[in-house]
Each structure stands twice: as C-alpha cells, then as structure tokens.
Amino acid sequence: MADDLLPKEVAQLMAEQDQALDAELEAYASGRLSPEARQALLARSAVDPKLAEALELYAPLSEATQDRIAERSLAEVRTLPFRKAPIVGSLLALAAAIMIGIFAMTDRYAPLPSYAVNAQVQDALYRSEDLPRAPTVRSDSRIELVLVPDQPAEGALAGRLFLEEGTTVRVIAAAPEISPDGALRWRGTPAQLLGVETGTVTVVMVVGRPGQLPEAPDGLHADQQSKSVKLIVRPR
Q1: Are 58 and 26 in contact (CB under 8 A)?
Q2: Which of 12, 33, 187, 224 could form a disulfide with 220 if both were Cys (CB 3.0 to 4.6 A apart)?
Q3: Pseudo-torsion of CA 31, 32, 33, 34, nearest 10°?
Q4: For residue range 49-88, what is the model confidence (pLDDT) as tens digits?
C-alpha cells in the first residue's frame, strides 16, 4: 500500500507512525500500558532491533534505582550553602527587597519644603509669628489648622495630629485634607476635632511621608516637620 503513495503522503504517514510510537514508548516508560499492549510491544521488539533498543532506553526504573536517585539528590541538597534555613533565607531576602523598595521610594522624593502654620480660630486668622500667644476659642466654635509649604511639596504626603494636655500626649485620629501643592488642613470644633471641651492644650501638627509618621511628637525623623498651636478652650 505504501508503494502506491506519493512521497509527501509517505512522509506524512511516517511522521504519524513516529508520533504514535513516541506516545506508546512514553506510556511504556510510565507504566500506563495495559498488559496486553505491553506484551504486543515486546513481541514487536523481538523482530525489530531499533524498537528493542528504544525499549531499553524507555524501560521503567526499578524501585531500587529510584531510591538510589532520590538518595543521591538529597545528599546533593544537603551540601548546598545555607541549607539549614532555606525558608528563613528566602524570607530575609524578601524583607530586604521590600526595605530597598521603601528606601528607593523615599529617596526619589526631594526633601520636604519648609512649613508654616495658619490657624483660623473663629473669625481671626493667626500665622506662625502670631502663635506664641494662645488664642481663646469656644469648644463648639470652628477652627481650621493649616500647614502651608513655602513651595510645592513633591511626592506623597501624610499628616498626624497630637494633643498635649499637661504631661499627657495622645494621637488625634483625624486625617488631614492635602492640597495638590502639599498644604495640610484639619478643621472642625475643638470638641469634635480634638475631643476637648475646656482647658489649655497644645496641638502638634506633623507632616511626613505615608507609613513613616512618628508615634510621638518628639520622635521626628529627618524628612518630617512639626508645628504647634496652643489653644485656650472655653466651654460653650
């Protein structure tokens, strides 16, 4: 029958036979051939030297041989450096990469500009030079505290408020509004914004980078600034 085929058809038939044989050999190597198919394959190899040679190469490994290979692989792994803590080593590498990324993000920004403070207390506007004296405000009156940069600030910003009452310092949860040029504004009443109904308090405003703000007003880093406003709060 093959004699009646054209050369192109012969080549296609041979390629299909080779693909079928490769699939059969892979099934033989993995032990997926049925007993009948395995016996038929061995019978063909008895009269086909090339097939017999292929079967030797594809012969499934014995359990003893698999055990020897596994043991040799384990022995090689045991000789690798840092073998005692591969997971810890990977975690340290990951942590180092994260820290490098954080430092890179910080370093790509220019230093913060200098900030001044404006405080709108009821109808009066106080600037940094006016604030050594403490404005008086009712607990239900509007106040607006603004950190103003002397030039546009580059990069992401964050702000935090601290309230000092005598020797007590606490964080105020209110987040600032941040303008495109880097000004930070907090607004509300002393009762709502600061939780203060009466007394003399100092509000400390801190500006810095996201994720790097201090937990206390005296814990500033290099690229952070703080400004303070002292207020005398009267009951409504």
Answers
A1: yes
A2: 224
A3: 110
A4: 877 777 676 666 556 655 655 565 455 444 444 344 454 4
Separation CA 115–CA 182 (nearest Å) = 10
Domains (range + CATH), the chain: 2-60 (no CATH), 115-234 (2.60.40.10)
> Which residues lie below 8 Å from residue 126, measured CB to CB, with a gap of 6+?
118, 119, 120, 135, 229
Partner residues linked to 159 by β-bridges: 207
Q: For residue 143, with 0-12 CB atoms within 10 Å meaning exposed, 13-18 middle and 19 or more buried, which class applies? A: buried
Structure token digits, residue 92? 């340290």
Query: In whole angstroms, what is the distance from residue 195 CA to residue 180 CA?
Result: 29
The tokens 């892979």 sit on which residue?
26
Angle of CA points 34, 35, 41, to nearest 5°: 90
